[in-house]
Write a structure and sequence with these properties.
The protein is built from 17 helices and eleven strands. The protein has 415 residues and is α/β, with parallel strands linked by helices. A six-stranded parallel β-sheet has the order 3-2-1-4-5-6, with helices on both faces. The site of coenzyme A has 24 residues, from helix 1, strand 2, helix 4 and strand 5.
Length: 415
């Protein structure tokens, strides 16, 4: 069974999170991803948030599986030669440095194209062209500038960022789509192209329902929001707590044990099609005949009362019981699972979504495997490389350098 991207070679200049998550997906799909890192230092995340002294952090290991690591400094002459050879031999150059960093290494897009007209040059940046294009950006800045923070949080609380790394990993996934499209396009055109994803744009793309609501707001209050009918709406989409954001009202309700367990909650959606079943199971058969309750429109103004009543029932059950009772009734719901519960979940282990990996310096650790499942090209998760682990191997087998040339490059500090 061949890997889907077998034969595709990536010159991976990415660092931190956004770029590496993208190239990690390409590596899982079978591409040969050659991660180029600064000699002696490597990707800064190797040393960040360390749990074990002197050992590559989980931050690094969990973002760089299935890659090879080469140390190379393209800023010095001997390094430039090797970098040029790598550009010749690779299908994709991916990077997410601050704007202009690759140019400052002496490799603007024009030169890269000249070296290899078939190469796809893919970048993550914080912002697209405009007033902020030169800014450095991290995850939460993208969440704040892409519309996620202003629309997330308690109704009367301050803006809130989410734990899902939609700015970094979210942009990495967008970059993968761009790279794959450019690879397909190259089949027809014979030429590579530039792929750029701005983190602000990717977050906004993931928040598009909120731009939808912004425009609906011009035509009256957002009736599915908790602010309706008694609160006030300003001129921008407000934060909506745990409201569903879709056409079917939903909320997080307490379950048995909530007093001591911070995750004893479940999300329940009161989809119109299964409302009768839900009403019956929580002991509110009376709602079915009552015009104040028996249509979605009638319920809109009193969603808080409705979820209070649902909660009285869910508080008598634990969160998995709630799931087990409501799902057969076609009531969409989900327990709030902690990371501890997810890490221990047997079904996620069985599908390879949670995997245990062995690392020569840190021993065994858990990671998230490839969430994209291909029937003919399953992914194995291979531990992240040590700094420069594959320098000689790549220089010899990919570039054809001999021992003397490698020795010379090393003496000059290029590798
Ligand atoms: C993430 C970010 C804020 C980090 O900033 P930073 O730590 O200051 O790192 P930078 O990207 O500015 O720069 C890296 C420097 O290392 C240099 N460098 C990187 N790899 C090198 C190598 N192999 N050899 C020699 N130098 C190297 C770069 O040339 C650059 O030097 P320069 O500033 O002289 O041009 C920034 O890279 C950024 O905004 N990236 C784009 C958006 C992004 O992806 N953000 C999310 C990250 S999770």
């Amino acid at each position: 069974m061949g890997k889907a991207l077998e034969g595709v070679r990536i010159l991976d200049m990415t660092h931190v999170q956004s770029g590496p998550t993208g190239t990690q997906i390409l590596a899982w799909l079978g591409a040969d991803v050659i991660k180029v890192e600064r000699p002696g230092k490597g990707d800064a995340t190797r040393g960040q948030l360390r749990d074990i002294p002197e050992v590559d952090s989980l931050y690094f290991t969990m973002l760089n599986h299935n890659k090879r690591s080469v140390t190379l400094n393209p800023k010095i002459e001997a390094g430039k030669k090797i970098f040029t050879r790598l550009i010749e031999e690779c299908d994709v150059l991916a990077e997410n440095f601050a704007p202009g960093a690759i140019d400052r290494m002496g490799f603007p897009w024009e030169k890269i194209q000249e070296i290899n007209p078939r190469i796809i040059y893919a970048s993550v940046k914080g912002f697209g062209p405009g007033p902020y294009e030169d800014c450095k950006v991290y995850e939460n800045i993208a969440q704040c500038t892409g519309g996620a923070a202003s629309t997330t949080g308690e109704i009367d609380g301050f803006p809130m960022v989410t734990g899902a790394q939609i700015g970094d990993s979210g942009t990495g996934i967008h970059l993968v789509a761009g790279i794959l499209a450019a690879l397909l396009h190259r089949e027809k055109s014979g030429k590579g192209q530039r792929v750029v994803c701005a983190m602000q744009d990717a977050v906004l793309n993931l928040c598009r329902v909120k731009l939808r609501d912004q425009q609906r707001l011009a035509h009256g209050p957002l009736t599915e929001f908790p602010q309706y009918p008694n609160g006030t709406f300003g001129d921008a989409v407000p934060r909506a707590g745990n409201a569903s954001g879709g056409g079917q009202p939903g909320w997080i309700v307490k379950c048995k044990g909530w007093e001591t367990d911070p995750d004893a909650y479940a999300y329940v959606i009161t989809q119109a099609a299964s409302f009768a079943e839900l009403a019956k199971v929580i002991g509110h058969e009376d709602w079915l005949e009552d015009p104040e309750w028996n249509t979605p429109k009638a319920r809109l103004g009193k969603l808080d009362t409705m979820f209070d009543e649902i909660e009285k029932w869910t508080m008598t059950k634990d969160k998995l019981e709630v799931m087990n009772i409501l799902n057969p009734l076609n009531v969409p719901c989900g327990p709030i699972l902690s990371m501890k519960e997810i890490a221990e979940e047997p079904s996620l282990r069985a599908t390879g979504t949670i995997v245990e990996v062995d690392h020569p310096e840190r021993g065994k650790y858990l990671t998230v495997g490839n969430p994209i499942k291909l029937s003919a090209s399953p992914s194995d998760v291979v531990r992240s490389p040590l700094l420069g682990e594959h320098t000689e191997e790549v220089l010899k087998t990919v570039l054809g350098l001999d021992d003397d040339e490698i020795k010379e490059a090393r003496e000059q500090g290029a590798i």
